[in-house]
Amino acid sequence: MLLTDDRWAALLEDRALRPDRALAVLRSRTRRPMLRDDGRLFIVAADHTARGMLGVGTNQFVMADRRRLLEALLVSLAHPGVDGVLGSADVLEELALLGVLDDKLVFGTMNRGGIMGAAWELDDRMTAYDPQSIADNGLDGGKVLLRLADDDAGTAPTLEACANAVSEMGRLRLPIMVEPLPYHVNEAGQAKLLDDDDKLLRGVAIAAGLGNSSSYNWLKVPAGKDPARMLSTTTLPALILGGAPGPDPEATYASWERAMDVPNVRGLVVGRALLYPADGDVAAAIERAARIVRPHP
Fold this sequence. Notes:
Layout: H1 5-17, H2 21-28, E1 41-46, H3 66-77, E2 84-87, H4 89-97, E3 105-109, H5 131-136, E4 141-148, H6 155-171, E5 176-185, E6 191-193, H7 197-208, E7 217-221, H8 227-231, E8 238-241, H9 249-259, E9 265-270, H10 272-275, H11 282-293
Helix pairs in contact: 2-4
């Protein structure tokens, strides 16, 4: 176990007694360039809890155990093939206090107001980082979730907020990941992800055109059935997301491998599928994903 009792106790003490320490560590940590010589990226995502997503599979509250989540993140960040982490301020500050963010990329999540299951879920407001705080706190970039539903008016303010974030991040010369996902609202009023490659392609086209400059815009997209067709609509760099762990991990890994063959795909941004694998072996799951991103050392 990497997060020992002593280390956990020290983290709790820092939280209570030294509130300024986390930001000081974030701002003074050793930085690295966005891309290194191989042009690949492997980012671990840990921003789910900030919008009330606590479950993985049949366990509805597994991510509510913060110590378990941090342990999985420590295992992940210890792997040399992991380039960085995406998270909300609470998670990133905890990792800073644990001393594991030197020479790692740190991305702050931005719109978490679309709380999972809420009636306003698709009106996804900026309730986490904003562009200026990402710059001020020494982070390397940001991320927005753009759920596009033609049957929910909450999509409109979300679209505008994401466009503003893209523009401001461009002004600050900081990369921003935009995650376009097609959604609809079912008869029960619930927001549901659409498994529709045509809608996904349309979402990529919309995301690519956000803001007053696309220069610092990256896409964060599912592999889909035909990633080459999906990403043929843009020249922007893309990272493949992992999503929830599926019933067949091998099929998931195969879809990531297939997507990595698309010329503008640069790597993976994966969270739950690696932090909470079915067999519980986080290190093995991270190693497998790292080999997909960089098959040749």
